[in-house]
Amino acid sequence: MAELLVVRHAQASFGTDNYDRLSDLGHQQSEMAGAALREMGWVPDRLVTGSLTRQKETVASMGYDAIPEEHPGFNEYDFDDLLRVKFGGTIPDLVRGDRKTHFRTLRETLREWQAGGLEGASETWINFKTRLQDAQTFAVDTDKQRVLVVSSGGAIGQLVANCLNAPPEQMIALNLQVKNTAMTKFIFSSRAFFLHEFNTTPHFATPDAAKLLTYS
Fold first, then answer.
1. How far apart are alpha carbons 22 and 172 in whole angstroms?
2. Which of 21, 29, 147, 182 could covalently link to 10 via disulfide, CB atoms 3.0 to 4.6 Å apart?
3. Pairing outcome for strands 69-70 and 2-8
4. d(Cα 35, Cα 62) in Å, to the nearest integer?
5. Count of C-beta atoms within a 10 Å radius of residue 50
């Protein structure tokens, strides 16, 4: 059976005006992830990303020269848009800049979104789920045996939750567990799609490397 390896993008620029770009640490994490795959002898024969800059920069810094295919279904949900709807247009500075407040608000906002709230958001929860399913179908509609996708935490959480037939709430828990450059592997064929590994980070296994692990 073939393998679909979905890697979360490396550390982006949390707390800055442009989150959608890698930090210096993010580029280093990406290099480490690519080196770990090469050391394991895992060589992809198909590359796919969403359309986000942080995803494309991750796959480039992993050391792959080929231009990846692009499917916007692998993009993250637009959390800024959800927050603007939730707070009437202006996101509070504390939500944007304080990590504890940010992630508490993220949980609350996603629960509201999943329940059908936040009317006026650019994407509904149902549409998010549908485009992730479409992206999964795109990635596995191939005769390639090793497909590497670079995506984002919420998208990966939904792929796993859907594969396990888990309730929507579980997607939030999975989303918040996904580490930067963590690897989630699925096994697939024309008739099957199974979760094989979730959120692994072999490149952070040593004590020194573990200091470089991040979640945002």
1. 23
2. 29
3. unpaired
4. 7
5. 23
d(CA 4, CA 146): 6
- Confidence category of residue 216, pLDDT binned at 50, 70, 90: confident
Instruction: Give the confidence band of 205 by pLDDT, cuts at 50, 70, 90.
Output: very high
Q: How far apart are CA 75 and CA 9, in angstroms?
A: 11
By the 8 A CB rule, do 185 and 44 touch? no
- The angle formed by the CA atoms of residues 12, 17 and 19, to the nearest 5 degrees, is 20
Q: 58 pLDDT band (50/70/90 cuts)?
A: very high
Residue 91, SS3 per DSSP: coil
* Its pTM surpasses 0.90: yes
What Cα–Cα distance (Å) separates residue 104 from each residue in 72, 79, 96?
27, 13, 11
Between the CA of residue 215 and those of 8, 27, 51, 174, 182, what are the distances in Å?
A: 10, 14, 20, 12, 9
Distance CA 85, CA 94 (A): 16
Chain centroid, CA 40 distance in Å = 22
Look at residues 174, 173, 143, 135 and name the one whose alpha carbon lies nearest to residue 55: 135
pLDDT reported for residue 16: 59
